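Cont'd.
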Amino acid sequence: MNEDRIISTIKDFLSDEFETDLHEVSPTASLKDTLDLDSLDFVDLVVLIEKNFGFKMAGEEFTGILTFQDLYNYVGKRLQEAAGTH
Amino acid sequence: MNRVVITGTGIYSCIGLNTAEVSESLQAGRSGIQFVQERKDIGYASALAGIVPRPELKGLLDRRARIMMPEEAEFAYMAALQAFDSAQITPEIIAQRHCGIIFGNDSTVKPVYEGIDLLLQKKDTQMLGSGSIFQSMNSTVTMNLSTIFALTGANFTVSAACASGSHSVGLAYLLIKWGLQEMVLAGGAQEVNKYSFASFDAIGAFSGMEENPTGACRPFDRDRDGLVPSGGGAALIIESLDSALARNAPILAEITGYGFSSNGGHISSSSTSGQVRSLRMALEQASIPSTGIDYINAHATGTPAGDMAEAEAIAEVFGEKNVPVSSTKSMTGHECWMAGASELVYSLIMMQEDFIAPNINFSQPDEHSAKLNIITKATQTKLNTVLSNSFGFGGTNSSIILRKYSK
């Protein structure tokens, strides 16, 4: 999956789940502030990542993911690693 | 001791999604029972049920609130909105009065089943998401509604089988009577999804008259063969008289008696003696003789043994054929955890609109119900004082008396 596809997939499911149009969101925008996330929302993000990209992440990995770009990079890296192991 | 009144009601049931619709059904003797194919498909012996639609809450509640709610919390929410509105209660009044919440609920089968099923597939609890825990607890209704309406008083769920809703109102009444609360949102909620009644169906308690859904629930009738499960949400605003008068609230009725008892016997069998104790306690609380009751909304579900026990209890306490009796379950089916609250709402509608709702499908009495004055057609009459019975598994009994308010 290329980076554009990763970004559009993330924007689609986040827009749908959090009922906010994120298609024009800046990559440097804060994930937490933009989506008004609380601790429970991060649990749902883990589920959404698994549903859409097929890998599981630990909730605490979100501590290093502050912006949308951080999330795009993280997902890209995990998908690359998964592809490399097959 | 405070006097305790009811200042608002809300109802979301299979015979109407608000009090106006329900009143029309009660007066017309209209049944809400239907045959539900999806229950038959998964192995129910009886696929009869009273079904209510899941409300569309997008636009009313945000995502975070919605994903915490199983259907019974949604039904309760719809009823609570109506109750606060009819009682003319604003968020400011809720805050000033430290409004509490006590709701009857005794299951939340669907989220529990679906959560465990997902867990077994995924082998990872994280995949259950954030909503599962809040949907899967019996207190789901009170935890959700207390958050949504910012309630700051008493906050707990009553699980007392089919008397849950009645005890919730009774406990709210006591807290206010004793001066511990000024205002409580009380009620009952009951899920209706296809999983909700499977274990109840397993014990053969449901009517087998699938070819005649609207005629299947036959409380007190000689040919009754079981109850019909149903559900939804019912809510009442219970308030001290002082609080109601101070804000010029509409006063629908006063709660004057709450009787309760436990049979101390079989887990599923009714007991005339246990019910008699509950009825007598309610009358004592209300300080009235048995002749002071104008109408009894019976618990009668349509099971042979249960209706027999209640008919005998009513005859013992009130005398034979003295007081008009009907079971609105003949139309609604058995709303189980919600029933005690919804039947108070139905009784309040009758008091407000001067009629007794019929016990439909009653053709012939048996030797026990022959002792009762069963009302089979909607009857215009003034009702000053009514009593509502609710009984549940484990032998829990509850009887509540409402009286028209007068100074």
